[in-house]
Design a protein that fits this description.
Distance between the termini of chain A: 102 Å
Strand content of chain A: under 5%
Oligomer: heterodimer
Order of helices and strands of chain B: HEHHHHH
Strand content of chain B: under 5%
Radius of gyration of chain B: 19 Å
Number of domains of chain B: 1
Largest sheet of chain A: none
Number of helices of chain B: 6
Distance between the termini of chain B: 30 Å
Largest sheet of chain B: none
Helix content of chain B: over 70%
Shape of chain A: elongated
Radius of gyration of chain A: 32 Å
Shape of chain B: globular
Chain lengths: 93, 218
Amino acid sequence: MKLLTAILLIVLSCGIPGVVRAQQPPPQQQDEFVPIDQLPPQDQLPAAPLLVAAYSFVVLALFAYVVSVARRLTNVQRELERLEGDVKRGGSA
Amino acid sequence: MPNWFTPLAGICALMFAATPVLIANAPYESTMGLVQKIFYVHLPSAWMFLGGAIVCGIASVRFLFRGDPRQDRLAWAAAELVVLFGVITLVTGPLWARKAWGVWWQWDVRLTSSLMGWMVAVAYMLLRKYGGPGSDKLAAGLALFGMANVPFVYISVNYWRTIHPTTNVVPTLPTSFGLPLWFSAVTFLLLFILLLRMRVRLEEQRARIDTLYLSMDA
């Protein structure tokens, strides 16, 4: 009986945080931005790595894509010139 | 490349250099603070992502009905940009959400439909690369689904229960927030046009190579 009570207590205590979480209202949907002059101090550090990560990713992704397209264009241009040369030589022979 | 390409590339480079200055000087938002500044690259990239899906869809419709290979090349180029700007949107969004919502991801309508739109573009690319003969028309059909998804993504935040900011945010922005946003949006638009032209040029050159190989075989 004691064991059963203990198991029941453990199961109930595990369920409580879930019930509490379920009762919390969801965050409000935002439909306007309100400017402020100073950033709250507690907000400065945690957000900075996320901001740096976001901007770094954007710059790297765009740079990698531009390099990729430029490289593919150069290769295709080279192949085109080679083929055009082959066609000219074939035509003159 | 056309005559306008180099001057436009110069303007775009200058604007890309100026955008971080404008963003750094923009005020902090009252509830989100520093992390709200991700918005200035997240939103323009999302617009290019959705715009690219529309360009890809319209070019695919024209290719399907007229059989014009130029439209097919445009659709392929746009699909690649949908993948690129989609990745940027889907990475910067969760980086903002981690701070603003406390979670990286929510399976709500806006995020899920955006992910679906991106996956359609990836499927388009895979089909074009590995689909073999006839894949151009199959991929064009797929692009229509990608385009049909765009209005759904846009209106989703207004019609369904979601914690993503609504479409009312942009029209109600004060000038201090609006100026860096629109400057960044124009910069992304110029970049989109330049990249699209480069990518179409690549397909044009590939088509010329195919023609040359066929003429050599004949």
